[in-house]
Amino acid sequence: MPRRTVRTTLDRLRTPGRVTGFLKSASICVLIAGLLSPLTQATATAATASNDYCGGQCSDILPPGENGNATLAQILLNQAFGTQPSHAEDQLGPYANLATGYSGLTDAKINTFFNDASFGVPSDQVASTESPAGRSDVTIVRDKKAGIPHITGTTRYGTEFGAGYAAAEDRLWLMDVFRHVGRGQLTTFAGGAASNQGLEQEFYRNAPYSEADLQAQIDNAVANNGARGQQALADANAYLAGINAYIDASDSGRYFPGEYVLTGHKDSITNAGTIDHFKITDLVALGAVIGSLFGAGGGGEVNNAISLIAAQSKYGVAQGTKVWESFRERNDPEAVLTVHNGESFPYATKPADAQGEALPDTGSVTTEPLVYDATGTGASQSATAASQTATTTALSSARRGMSNALVVSGKYTASGHPIAVFGPQTGYFAPQLLMLQEIQGPGISARGASFAGLSMYVELGRGQDYSWSATTSGQDIIDTYAVELCQDDYHYLYHGTCTAMDKVEQTNSWKPTTADGTAAGSYTMRVWKTKYGPVEYRATVGGKKVAYTTLRSSYMHEADSIIGFQMLNDPDYVKGPKDFQSAAQHINYTFNWFYADSSHTAYYNSGDNPVRASGVDAEFPVWGQSAYEWKNWNPTTNTADYTPASAHPNSVDQDYYVSWNNKQALDYTTAPWGDGSVHRGNLLEDRVKKLVAAGGVTRTKLVQAMADAALADLRAEDVLPKLLKVVNSSTVTDSTVADAVSKLQAWVSAGAKRTETSAGSKKYADADAIRILDAWWPLLVKAEFQPGLGSDLYTAITNNLPIDESPSAAHGPTGSHAGSSFQYGWWSYVDKDIRAVLGESVQGPLADKYCGGGSLSSCRDILMSTLKTAAGTSASTVYPGDSLCSAGDQWCADSIVQRTLGGIKHGNISWQNRPTFQQVVEYTSHR
Predict the structure, then answer these.
(1) Relative to the CA of 827, which of 36, 373, 523, 917 has its CA 20 to 30 Å away?
(2) Contact yes or no for 420/597 (Cβ under 8 A)
(3) Of 141, 50, 225, which Cα lies nearest the Cα of 927?
(4) What is the sign of the dihedral through the CA atoms of 844, 848, 851 and 856?
(5) Cα(481)–Cα(552) distance, rounded to whole angstroms?
(6) Which tens digit of pLDDT belongs to each residue from 168-226?
(7) How far apart are CA 34 and CA 51, in angstroms?
(8) Cβ–Cβ under 8 Å, residues 461 and 60
């Protein structure tokens, strides 16, 4: 029967939304009375598994809940009275409660905050059993606690059919939304809200695929992978058949997601209208969205060039380059590392003599327009703002993939078995982008999370005697080429021949619906493509007109990673750490992969890392000429030579691994800025290193380390003590400053956490200190660095790396209330500069001392002055309020919102900086 759906489509994806007042309560009650129908109770039968080697010590959690579909009646009840469909938010409370419950955690209490992730369902915990579409070769059992589908098939086709059916039961509307996002058609499908416009523009700019492009990627992935490629195609077709069977059943039974009615695709009275069947190219469109969000490291070369030119303009070429490099921190000796045994994995390092650089002339860069012929709300001010935000996000190297991992070798655990606490930070949505499932069938045995619409395999989870997870890595697989224009703005020189660019267009129009009242509008998205990728900027280089294009190694290869996931789900393939690494090598997106079984741990950094021409600096644009192309690059297939697996950071049985999107290993340069002395990875490194030194690590201790880091304010823990050291270098006589210093010091002494006074209080302990630091940080950074750098260079570097990413800031692709914090900011710069001013040792220092020009007394004056201003800044100014929170409500400003992607809404929860889906695992035995 029906699962749940969502709320005001995507019009509130970037900012928290109010309840849409589209129906009066009386009308809701009348509609509900006519729409509710009795639910058939399925027969409860047992589903058990004998292939589980975790001994009851595998757990997982994925808020808000498994059920991501809701009928129209359920949506209306939720909007009117706040009632929730079954299993729509039963994982949200346990997830939220860990923030105040972790201090008293024991191994026995772990599943108070997590699900039991053992295979199978005990007979007394079976809620329902169904044979989808009446098939005899597959059953879907759902458990009572969370409603998770446990799919068991006797044939491979039946197993995958069941996976598709269960996916549609739990996420049909969401899957439909994102297949339209991947095609740049969201506004036509879901409404013209400004945030919908921004979202489709963000993805279309980087992946303007035609239907033929999508099909070609499938054909190539199948053709290049032998029997596994053929099996993947068969699995995908069975999966699609299951999705479409559910569409037909829910349509005829009238329990399809209610958003189809609210967006005008179905009629609630006559049932007129259609829900389009899914086709195989939809899976590639979905994969392109997920890969772009979480697994496409690189880009930003034009912004890098702009800031380098600003540095050279201020200081001269030699000193300006030195200053720029010191802020870039390509290979900072103080950076936290995932592979920390000293092994080096050189990639994208600075060449001794850079070749082929095509830096723009000062002031000549313009962003390539995407939107043309806008009408109505497609041309509004809010639409323009959304488009600008989408462009900035799409073209930045700071892709907020997020996620963290803590993995400890059995040598340092109480049991002698490895322990892992890991998972991806994929944001908070209702329904969640990921879904939980267990799949058992011929050649498949796994439980865990998969992205909705791509769940033919478990993508992050556990097998019979091993678990795996990933974090976003961000190494550079995207390069920018300057192609010289000829004839006009839409022809370019390719290997000496004037060649026409290809024009790709998508025209969208929309009109108001019940779900999205945005007035009618339209526009055309237009992308000009070259053999070196889509055009992103225009400029001049040495007076010559050029177009800057971006080429991504995974472009036109969105489907390739399916083989790696197929391997990870295959118990006959993965039998140990080397097999795991081999599987991960078949994933072409940029991820850090982690593994644990009963005896071993392992790590592998995946991605198709192109082999660049000698002398090419990956940081900057290069000329689109054969001498500077990737080695053996074929523009027709977008294939090239890639670095071998041994050159990727990798390891087996290191004492421990931590990852929070930090630097992978020595000499391995990632595209985003900020891999310096202070990184949020330090919050994990410091805690796990301490646990390992003491020995006897347990699941409880590792969960506590993660949960403690999840509440830490990185600035307060790692930088604030040094700032206070400067302030206290002389007696503080100003009473306002002295009071602020006292509060800040007390907060640091208490642990520098952003945590409630008690569970549910919605008030922070040390609230005033938190307010002061939130107000002080941007003031002190600007006062510390802008005078020395100058306004132009300071602004240019802030475009490379934002100053701050506090929990309440509207940052990242999902705006405020997003949970993930402290990934990008100037904390390393402040740390290094303040230590230098204090006369302390700094490895990899900045090129100059900036605070007070290097004078301790002058630096202190700057900090004192800005601190006094911050102390006097009211909470209502620091936390100005939004559609969810009143001005001055600090807790609410930080709080996490499950952003509605359809009809069901949830309450906000207290801030945690933590994976969305998370596993806690400790295997007791092995096959």
Answers:
(1) 917
(2) no
(3) 50
(4) positive
(5) 11
(6) 999 999 999 999 999 999 999 999 999 899 889 988 998 999 999 999 999 999 999 99
(7) 47
(8) yes
